[in-house]
Every structure is written in structure tokens, then in C-alpha cells.
Specification:
Length: 203
């Protein structure tokens, strides 16, 4: 996969607007301000492909990006308390509408802020993904904001905070150092790029 040719293709604010999927998809989920846009930009070596905002809850649409034959989907951040209830309902309907539609969704990358225990919304999302048997991997973000001792403490705490955490595919991500980027690229390619295409790229 050529990670340098990604482009933004569309944004939708209502689940009824979502088009049918044409390619394998990878979705990014997580609470507001967890770093989804930052991760997307790092994966594709771009600064502003996905707009990064310092204001939590800014992404109110599902944003679609295309890279080769894979579609990447940035879901609205959940759990921002200052958002109006009507807006929260719209977001929830939008996220659920996407996740429950008939698409070639290969995996959800669930981003969780490494600095803190998972929120109630994080745990609800984990439960939803497990109950629906949807493939997913956990990405622990903001690793660069922890020192070595704090990082060790949080990694030791997560198995006690998230059920079956030790059985999950987990990647630690740092936007500052790029830690985790190559691991996530390999994971995505393994589940989206056909074997015959991989063979052609190697020859």
C-alpha cells in the first residue's frame, strides 16, 4: 500500500447519508480529543489530511479517506459532556448507523488515552465490539506524555481496567516519536491487502 497518496473524499452528518461501501474499510473510534486525526495524519505522512482541533467534540461528521483500495473512516469522537443532548443523539445514531450497516469493515481501531483509565464510554465501545464480534484493535495514544515509570504503571493497570485486555491486539502510539505507526500500517495491510497483490508488490 502506498501510504503517501491518501485523500479526503467525503463527510456525512447523518447515517441516512452514508453511501454503500465499495472497498475494505478501517474505522477509527474513540472519545473526543483522543487523537484520531493526529493518528490518521501520521499514518499517511501528512500534516493536515485530517484536521486536528484543540476543541473536544469538533468532529461532528463521519469523514472518509481513500488510500489505494482501502477506505479509512474517522468516526465522531464520543463522550464530550458539553455537547447538547440532541447533538449527542445524532452522533450516537451516526456511529451506530455506520457500525451496524452492511460494509466490508475489516477492523475498528479503538483509540484510548494511555494516560488515564478507560472512560465509561470506552468500556461501552469495547463491550459493543466484543458483543457484535467485530474485529478491533486497541491503540493507546499520547504515550509521549508519560515518563517511563508512568508508562509501565498504565500498561500494568489496563488488564485490570478492561476485560480480556491481554487477549487484544494493542499498539502504543506516540505522535511525537512515531512509535506504533509502522506496527499499525503492517496490521492494516495484513487485513486489507489481498495476498496476490502483496506477492506482486514483492516481485
Amino acid at each position: 500500500m502506498n501510504w503517501n497518496i491518501a485523500e479526503f473524499t467525503a463527510a456525512y452528518g447523518l447515517s441516512s447519508q452514508l453511501p454503500a461501501g465499495k472497498h475494505p474499510e478501517i474505522a477509527f473510534a474513540g472519545r473526543s480529543n483522543v487523537g484520531k486525526s493526529t493518528l490518521i495524519n501520521k499514518l499517511f505522512n501528512r500534516k493536515n489530511l485530517a484536521r486536528v482541533s484543540a476543541v473536544p467534540g469538533k468532529t461532528a461528521t463521519i469523514n472518509f479517506y481513500q488510500c489505494d483500495t482501502v477506505t479509512f473512516v474517522d468516526l465522531p469522537g464520543y463522550g464530550y459532556a458539553k455537547t447538547a443532548k440532541s447533538e449527542l443523539h445524532r452522533w450516537r445514531d451516526l456511529i451506530n448507523g455506520y457500525l451496524q450497516s452492511d460494509r466490508d469493515l475489516r477492523a475498528v481501531l479503538l483509540l484510548i488515552d494511555m494516560r488515564h483509565p478507560p472512560t465509561k464510554d470506552d468500556l461501552q465501545m469495547v463491550d459493543f465490539l466484543m458483543d457484535t464480534e467485530m474485529p478491533f484493535a486497541v491503540v493507546l495514544t499520547k504515550a509521549d506524555k508519560l515518563n517511563r515509570t508512568q508508562r509501565t504503571q498504565r500498561l500494568e493497570a489496563f488488564p485490570k481496567e478492561i476485560p480480556q485486555f491481554e487477549d487484544m491486539n494493542v499498539t502504543v502510539f506516540s505522535s511525537m516519536t512515531g512509535e506504533g505507526v509502522q506496527d499499525l500500517r503492517r496490521l492494516i495491510e495484513e487485513i486489507t491487502v489481498p495476498v496476490e497483490m502483496e506477492s506482486e508488490q514483492e516481485t
